[in-house]
């Protein structure tokens, strides 16, 4: 086992790293798979173990630090923004009492009724109160009551 061809060891590492990347889609292990590929190829040119490990470490870190930010930015640009995203931050009026524990609560926005839940499970927000939309989870608006100053 200790006399295993280093090319096979690098190939196994590449496969493991690619499987992890496919399972997580975190854009992390893919760069190490690139470094392992360079080390794998270097075995065919007679590179020793020290050179192989140096190639693996230096190229993996270079790929990670130099190309990951661009890849993440590219992936975020491909996210489709919806009209619902524009609701976050808006102020609306509660049309039906919001009570997370009772699974009730509604707000109306442009004649469309939305289910609403409070950011605080213990907070009950009566109908007629103004709330700010903090986020959207599925088809529910997550809101927080706006304290009116007297």
From TrEMBL:
SUPFAM superfamilies reported in the protein's UniProt record: NfeD domain-like
Localisation per UniProt entry: Membrane
InterPro entries for this protein: Membrane_assoc_protease, NA-bd_OB-fold, NfeD-like_C
Domain NfeD-like C-terminal stretches: 84-144
Pfam family, one: NfeD
Residues annotated as transmembrane: 7-33, 39-66
Membrane topology summary: Multi-pass membrane protein
Keyword annotations of the record: Membrane, Transmembrane, Transmembrane helix
Protein name stated in the entry: NfeD family protein
């Amino acid at each position: 086992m200790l006399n295993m061809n280093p090319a096979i060891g690098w190939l196994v590492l590449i496969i493991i790293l690619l499987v992890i990347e496919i399972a997580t889609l975190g854009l992390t292990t893919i760069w190490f798979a690139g470094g392992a590929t360079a080390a794998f190829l270097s075995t065919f040119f007679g590179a020793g173990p020290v050179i192989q490990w140096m190639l693996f470490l230096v190229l993996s870190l270079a790929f990670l630090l130099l190309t990951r930010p661009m890849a993440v930015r590219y992936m975020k640009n491909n996210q489709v923004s919806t009209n619902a995203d524009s609701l976050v931050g808006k102020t609306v009026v509660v049309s039906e009492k919001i009570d997370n524990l009772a699974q009730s609560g509604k707000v109306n926005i442009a004649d469309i009724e939305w289910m609403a839940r409070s950011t605080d499970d213990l907070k009950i927000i009566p109908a007629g109160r103004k709330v700010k939309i903090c986020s959207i989870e599925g088809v529910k608006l997550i809101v927080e009551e706006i304290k009116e100053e007297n």
